[in-house]
Amino acid sequence: MSTSARLLVLSAALGLVSSLSAASGWLHWRGPTADGVSPAKQKLTTDLALGGPNHRWTYKAHGAGTPVIADGRVFAMCYYGENGEEVEEAIIALDVKTGAKLWEHRFKDFISDTVYNRYAIGAPYVDAETGNVYCESVGGVITALTRDGKIIWQRSMMEEFGRLTFPNGRTGSLITDGDFMYAKAITANWGTDGPARSRYYAFDKRTGELIWASTPGTEPVDNPFGAPLFADLGGHRVFYVGTGCGHVVCINARTGEPVWRFKFSNGGLNSDVLLDGPGKLIAIHGKENIDSSSQGRLVALKIPTEYPTGPKPVILGKDAELWRNDEFSAFSSSPLLVNGRVYATNANGTFTCADAATGRTLWSEKLGADQVHASPAFADGRFYVPMHEGHVFVIEVKNDKPVIISNNKMEAGTVCLGAPAFYGDSIFIFTKDGLHSFGPKATAPIIPAAVPPPAPSKLSTAPIVALQVVPAEFALYPGQSQTLKVWGLDATGRRVRDVTKEATFAKFIPPTALVKAEVDAELTGSTIKAGPAAKLSAGSIQAKWNNLAGTTRGRVIATYGHREDFESLPLGQKNNEGTDVGFPPLAWLGARVKWHIFEKDGNKFAGNRLDSLLFMRTMNFIGGPDMKNYTFEADVMTDGNRRVMSNVGLVNQRYLFVLAANNRVLEISSTHERFHATVPFEATANTWYRLKTRVDRDKTGEGGFVRAKLWPRGEPEPAKWTIEARQNKLHQHGAPAVYAFSPQSMKRVFIDNLAITANE
After folding, report:
1. How far apart are CA 469 and CA 485, in angstroms?
2. Which of 232, 497, 589, 661 can pair with 638 through a Cys bridge, CB separation 3.0 to 4.6 Å?
3. Helix (H, G, I), strand (E, B) or coil at 339
4. Of 420, 438, 456, which residue constitutes the final position of a domain?
């Protein structure tokens, strides 16, 4: 199926969008200017006592992020439940006056490392031009909705782009600018994007088509959390953001070109950056510094004021620092810039102020034992400062010193992880136990006047100097097609006009490509079609127009009827042990650096690589996220002995089926914290088994059974399932994948004779 068909579009997206009017309010988790500062005079209360005279309402749900508010509606990420299957993440829409729920969509976590209840650590975003709402679940599913809760499109970052998962569960916030919606992830995709890196993705905000993907940094060490901050740079539209590899980067928002980067930390950067006028950027982190053993730093950088020419990204060195202050340390709390002062909540629980011109610390006020995540905000001349221990402080600065106006304790035993949000005379605080609205109860909440919407993006009239092919990446099932569009861009990356009908198209192998491969599909004009018998493959397509060229890339992926015995794959490479090996299909996400093809006794099979501890666990998707009602089976084997063996398995419809040989069980999970079932199974090392998996819905269409069989290869298939587990709410669809886990990279696992068949 083509990428556009696989967006899981549930309605006529463009028709929905055209009927919507603009939105105004607190649309971004950090407010209208994306810096945590409210520009309006709002007559806000300083009394945030639960049950007090200014407590308007509470919506009972767990939250760890910040709500956004548009035109009388509150949108927030939250989760319900405490344990096991009952835990579900959700996006909710509430009435701003009463807190009554207007609609919600729930998301079940899948195939993630999320521990405990680290859900909803992020915020939705409302696009001012269309009023559409964007959110990302902890499982990496990006959803675009109308303000009334109708899904427009979805993308599964894990299953489509190889998004990696992390225990902290941080998703952050999506954001739009112009016609695009931007997301970040650490991904291990395919080809040049195969190595794991912090990447940024631009999607068409109306259709979900991928516009570009950008890799601005180096090998990541953490899951980055910060949101992009947009600005103009010499006629170009750019954004600034921190990466998982410890850099502050600048990226061209229209083309994805990395513009410059500055190495700031030995850990990932999770706080949003600030701009202090032209040519000055302020950033903070809480990890180990690159030039000392201390942790944490606040820095001001002298950044380019013109768009650089020549090779990019430009590497900024230490001489770009205007000043630094190592008294600041924030892991994911973002700073404020107010009247020439920088304010931040530090990891040690202090609220600290520095002079933005010199970086010198002016004062520090102890508010708590520590601070994990929540960011302060500024409104009506006061700072609203949530702290990890569940207190929200209201602070004024008088005579350049902090004065605590109120100290408001939220629910007993709760924590505050999100930033405050403001709308009219209302203040919103999300704790782990509820979303609270505060404001004068004597009168109805003030609804602010609508702000004129941003002008729709206009096409440039400048000369075309570059081409942009959309989608930037596609995936086809055999028998499916994808129609490409080619935009002519001006020198700043703005679109000039559609030149698709005038362009020519051909398969293309970049001269720098390590793998000289083509996608197994035929081109007819701007349409590329995979035949019914197309093989798993990947490659690039080049569009040419008027001596200019642009490229897209795509894959033919597995679907119902797919079989793989690896016999057609060549060897001819040497691994680190000197063994003759080959590589798995290029269309497997992130697989070339994690799997090899081996041959023994005239039979070829796949085995996971052991040359890096980083890759001792791998999950590689081979199909699409809209697949459902299929049986996925393969031969599986683990190397080792009774004391040391490894785990091997398959993913079917967002469930992981694993022969956990060391544990002597066959197990099924979606995530171990949410859903996990096992039965005893004594596996023998270096023995092939057949693993067969299936997911079946019951008559309700919502619940059903997750099933697997495991038996020695060559023996008759048993009539009964080895394991059956019921779920009240099944995952309704999901991509197939292969899985391996070799603790300490000691013993390989092997897979052969994969088969995907549609259930009857």
Report:
1. 6
2. 661
3. coil
4. 438
Residues 589, 226: Cα–Cα separation, whole Å: 26
Q: What are the start-end ranges of the H helices in 616-719?
A: none
Say which CATH number the domain at 574 has.
2.60.120.560
Say whether both 470 and 598 belong to one domain.
Answer: no
Among residues 139, 77, 87, 157, the alpha carbon closest in space to that of 116 is found at: 87
Rounded CA-CA distance 471/211 in Å is 6
Distances (CA, A) of 276 to 298, 302, 339, 633: 14, 10, 10, 57
CB-CB contact of 154 with 165 (8 Å): no
Strand duo 236-242 + 133-136: pairing: unpaired
For the stretch 113-156, pLDDT in tens is 888 788 999 999 999 999 999 999 999 999 999 999 999 999 99
For 588-629, strand residue ranges (E) read: 595-600, 603-608, 617-621
Relative to beta strand 73-80, strand 88-95 is: antiparallel
Do 219 and 357 sit in the same domain of this protein?
Answer: yes
Please give, one letter per residue, the 3-state secondary structure of 396-455.
EEECCEEEEEEEEECCCCCCECCCCEEECCEEEEEECCCEEEECCCCCCCCCCCCCCCCC
Q: How does the average pLDDT of the chain come out, rounded?
A: 93
| Residues 493, 425 share a domain | no
Q: How many domains does the chain have?
A: 3
Residues in the chain, how many?
760
Nearest C-alpha neighbor of 30 from the set 419, 539, 290: 419
| Domain carrying residue 534 | 466-556
pLDDT in tens, 39-96: 878 789 999 999 999 999 999 999 999 999 999 999 999 999 988 788 899 999 999 9
DSSP assignment string, 221-287: SS---PPPEEEEETTEEEEEEE-TTSEEEEEETTT--EEEEEE--SS---SPPEE-STTEEEEEEEE
The dihedral over CA atoms of 497, 500, 502, 506, expressed in degrees to the nearest 10, equals 140
Find the angle CA(705)-CA(708)-CA(629) to the nearest 5 degrees.
55
Is this model's pTM higher than 0.85 or not?
yes
In angstroms, the CA 714 to CA 644 distance is 25
Determine contact, residues 91/135, Cβ cutoff 8 Å: yes
Concatenate the DSSP letters of all residues of 13-62 into one string.
HHHHHHT-----EE-STTTTTTSSB--S-----S---TTSTTEEEEE--B
Contact status, residue 631 vs residue 736, Cβ threshold 8 Å:
no
What is the rounded CA–CA span in Å between residue 199 and residue 183? Answer: 9
